[in-house]
Design brief:
By secondary structure, this protein is of the alpha/beta class. Helices cover 46% and strands 18% of the residues. It contains 16 helices and 17 strands.
């Protein structure tokens, strides 16, 4: 099957970014040693912010006054969609108890983490939607302590729309803090009543590296890379819409890949021809970001069959995947690797990014091969329990002892032996051998 790149990505020569890791390690060590003093120093030095880190309800209320009514309405609309979808996710998860054999009862419980840290980026763009995606989802999951943080800039502080979204979604603690210092504050429990058990939310490379470094001592959602978007299109797709959607996602940043997989060579060539015009019509800084992203990371891949296109798409495992092709249910049933799927011309990635309902915090860099996006399940521990009566302990204990000795784990075996001896002193059991000795 012939696959042809009508446009191949030519990314700049990759360099080993040791400096980011070294910077993050140094900052985390200083913050762990010095606590809030180091946090506040970094806030001054990196963001020019000298205000309060821990925002009170009064501080938030004063800032929220500046949010126009129409913006509040739009945020409320998005919140309702995200909340409804998250609630359906929560309802789809279940606890159960089952008797696996007479006297052996096992079960599953769903327990929310105690503290969730939600990082909301606030650099070039005011990501109010990201506040909804993280804080609202944690709230629906039942997390009793939600700490939300977003960068504060000089005298302006945190973007008021972000604060409104955090407040609406139920954040219990709000910090005016960004970057590595924010991730450290969440992980170490500074300014909040407890350290975060899990930290979620997108950010720049320093935020991503801090989360990666701390993973293990805390849980994280994903180690996020630059936003990725792909479109599958056939000969019936509207080239102008394809180009607009690719350019719209390329504005995320100069290193954000955008990919088109198509069964129509003519469509692919037309999109390549019109992309410069579509990008040139964007205002700055979107124009510069999209131009660099398309030049260095944009790809258009042609294959003659939809089966081949599925193989290509699943190999890329894109964060966002749009289908602008006929027979949408076929694609829905066939594709396996993506963060979130957008079916048909009437939808687009931007809808999911902002307000449609499914979460927009999604896996990148091929992680969609093994992971989905942020959901209520990320904030919930699926734990198990078991309970045996003496009859079941008699049956299970013998097998557990024999398997333990087979594996060379005598201590394990003896925890079964002692129970069998206590409960059934008159019986003899075959309990296996260890190093040639019969028990």
């Amino acid at each position: 099957m012939t696959t042809e790149y009508l446009k191949k990505a030519t990314p700049p020569q990759a360099t080993i970014d040791a400096a980011t890791g070294e910077t993050v390690q140094r900052m985390l060590a200083e913050i762990k040693a010095e606590g809030c003093a180091a946090i506040e120093r970094y806030a001054r030095e990196l963001d020019g912010y000298k205000g309060k880190i821990l925002l009170s309800e009064a501080d938030i209320a004063e800032s929220v006054k500046r949010v126009p009514v129409t913006v509040r309405q739009d945020i409320a609309f998005a919140h309702q969609r995200v909340r409804d979808f998250a609630q359906r996710q929560r309802d789809s998860l279940g606890e159960f108890e089952v008797e696996l054999m007479s006297g052996l009862v096992a079960g599953q419980k769903l327990i929310p983490v105690n503290t969730a840290g939600c990082y909301v980026p606030g650099g070039r763009y005011a990501h109010a939607a990201s506040a909804i995606m993280s804080v609202c989802t944690a709230q629906v999951a039942g997390v009793p302590n939600i700490v939300a943080t977003s960068p504060a800039h000089k005298e302006a502080g945190v973007n008021p729309a972000i604060l409104y979204a955090m407040q609406l979604c139920g954040a219990h603690t709000v910090l005016a803090l960004g970057g590595v210092q924010a991730i450290a504050a969440l992980a170490y429990g500074l300014y909040a009543k407890a350290p975060a058990d899990i930290i979620v939310g997108p950010g720049n490379r320093f935020v991503a590296e801090a989360k990666r470094t701390l993973f293990g001592s805390i849980g994280i959602d994903v180690v996020a890379g630059p936003t990725e978007s792909a479109i599958i299109a056939d000969e019936n797709a509207d080239a102008e819409i394809v180009a607009a959607d690719l350019a719209g996602q390329a504005e995320h940043g100069p290193d954000s890949p955008v990919w088109l997989y198509t069964t129509s060579r003519a469509l692919g060539e037309k999109v390549i021809a019109i992309m410069p015009r579509v990008i040139a019509a964007l205002p700055e800084p979107a124009r510069s970001s999209a131009s660099a992203a398309w030049r260095d990371y944009g790809e258009v891949v042609y294959a003659p069959t939809r089966e081949a296109i599925c193989e290509i798409s699943d190999r890329y495992a894109p964060e966002h995947l749009q289908i602008l092709a006929s027979d949408l249910d076929w694609w829905l049933g066939r594709l396996t690797n993506y963060g979130s799927l957008f079916l048909g011309e009437e939808t687009t990635v931007a809808y999911g990014d902002k307000c449609a309902g499914p979460n927009h915090i999604l896996p990148t860099r091929g992680a969609a091969r093994y992971s989905g996006g942020l959901s209520v399940g990320k904030f919930i521990k699926t734990v198990t329990y078991q309970r045996l009566n003496r009859t079941a302990s008699r049956e299970v204990g013998q097998v557990a002892a024999r398997i333990s000795r087979l594996e060379g784990m005598e201590g394990h075996a003896r925890t079964g032996d002692i129970r069998l001896k206590k409960y059934f002193p008159e019986e003899h059991f075959e309990l296996g051998t260890l190093q040639g000795h019969q028990h």
